[in-house]
Amino acid sequence: MKLLFWVLVLALFFFVLGFKRGRPDRDTAAPAARPQAPTVPVAAEPPPEEMVRCAECGTHLPVSESLPGRGGHFCCADHRSRFEARSS
Fold this sequence. Notes:
Layout: H1 2-22, H2 26-29, E1 51-53, E2 60-62, E3 67-69, E4 72-74, H3 77-87
Antiparallel strand pairs: 1-2, 3-4
InterPro entries: PP0621-like
Protein name: Pyrimidine deaminase
Region (Disordered): 25-45
C-alpha cells in the first residue's frame, strides 16, 4: 500500500511538471512586449571563383592565382617559361 502511494505521488508530480512545460509562459504569449535583439546583417559570400588548369602540369587553381602566358594559364613562372621555351 505504501508503494502504491509513492507511485501515485510520483505520477502526479510528473503530470504536473509535464503540464507546466506544455503551457506557454506569459513571456512567450506576448512576443511584441519583449524587446527584440538587434539583427546583425550577414555578409554575403563571394561567388565561387573560376578554376583554370595549368597548361604544363595540369594542376587546377583559381584564375586569380594563375599566371597568364602564351599557352594559357600556369601555376608558376617556371612552368610558364618551360612551356613557352618548348612551344617556340
